[in-house]
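Help! Submission page says 'invalid entity' but I think these are all valid:
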Amino acid sequence: METPAISCEELCKRFGNKTALDRLDLAVAQGTVHGLLGPNGAGKTTAVRVLATLLRPDSGHARVAGFDVVREASQVRARIGLAGQNAAVDEILSGQQNLVMFGRLSHLPAVTARRRASELLGQFALTEAATRPVRQYSGGMRRRLDLAASFILAPRVLFLDEPTAGLDPHGRSEVWQVIRTLAAAGTTVLLTTQYLDEADLLADVITVIAAGRVIAEGTPGDLKTLAGGDRIDVTLRQASDLDPAATLLRARLGTHVRVDLDRRELSVPVTDRLGVLTQIIGLLQESNISAEDVAVRRPTLDEAFRHLTWPQPAPASAVASAEVTTA
Amino acid sequence: MTLALVPEIPPTIRSRIGWAIRDTWVITCRDLAHWRQQPGSVVAGTLVFPIMIVLMFGYLLGGAMIVPGGGDYRDFLMPGMFAMTMVFGIGSTLTAVSSDAARGVTDRFRSMPMAAPAVIGGRAAADMLNSAVALAVLTGCAFLTGWHPDRGAVRALAALGLLLLLRFAFVWAGVYLGLRFYASTEAVTAVRTLEFPIGFLGNPFVAISTMPAWLGAIALWNPLSSTATAARQLFGDPVGAHASWITSHAIIMAVAWPLLLIAVFFPLSLRRYQRLSR
């Protein structure tokens, strides 16, 4: 089997009496985009900082691009790129000056550093702004420059710690495009994010961590299935019909029914989608309850995430109406 | 796909030193590029304040100033103003170090295959270069006001050397404080105001013998005062008579104080830098 691009075993890291990583195991296959998801304080950033040689783990082992992150840190650094939560670039210098400087500090010969800088400015759509000081850049441009800087060595392994935090929707989609391009070129990407749609769109595999440990891992599809499979959502015309309709469906279908008052919606888990759909429509017509909309849908990653990271299930009526906040 | 560029990590100590020197130079060049990009703010940041001080103390208030033991007040003032500028350099070191650390630039450097000592070494080299240029410009301005060293070029250069030694000591204090407090901008601002008591509670503008005894004692033991007095002696400027052991050994103290500060803050800075990975 191919050696994983990133692997760690039993990684532990404590800050004072706070445990950030609690025997974290992780394996990231070469050439994949791997999402690291978790609520705030779950240990995502700590994991990335250990893997990128910025923090020493208290115990456990981690290898990146075939080298140990503690004992062979400089070999690891020669093969990785890191883009953190800030755009870690010099604000006074121009985009080009930044990239040439980072290239020189990565020990590229001067000619190569300049060539790489102009290649990357082109690749990240910054050629026009190349000679402008970075402080005149928009948020999205800064972040693209930051990504370009992390890609100076065209590294095999790229760590992106919340690469779109604080960007507007336009900036986010710009950055997504760049990440897709890098991944398509064969770079292994470890991506942490608070945005589930981002992980859903970009990641091949997602690891969900909480309190420094892995609690689930799989493709976005696997995780959605974990959240309870498909559902049918019925939106009613009258809010007053919600309770009788829910009682009716519970009794006749023998399943759990979630009620969302705000959306005037009932949500029913299903396996035989078409069968249950016809049954529901029949039952509602019999009782003269008029529905505005009926939709069959797969659970979202939001639901999977909530299912995995919420220690106790919330009351049925609250579940569907609460917007997931992973922030 | 773009072929990965994998720099070869130097295998020997000698080639590692070569890397460290090259990296330090690249970081120094970064600062020189700042000069080119924003010459205005560099001039404003390091030169306007001392020049304002000269105008205010030298011309506005200077007429009323009497140097104990005799001598021209502006001649007394110039070396004091040089020394004060060296002390105020701590603010620019502190700001540069803390903003790099806070904005993740230091982490980016640390995740790159560069020589670790260059990250702060480059800062120190750039600050020293900046200060040397600032000192040269201020000396030029002082010449324009009619000030000049009276005891020969060698002693004048020795005085400039002592001033830069003081600056070098404050570079390490700035690096340490920057790495210690970068996480909070309030703390950085608070620490930065330290340059005022250190810069003013000394003898750059007024002779210690004119101060109340308790304040004089503080001013006397301020490292800045020893350097200012030593520079006055070496430039042949009035020193403002004050009989005390530390004043009569000003040149020794102008070497000893900075060395002591370096002995404290250099290891502290290195330790802080290493602790970034803890």
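Support: the input was valid. A stray whitespace character was the problem, and the output above is from the cleaned input. Residues 312-327 of chain A have pLDDT under 50 and may be disordered.
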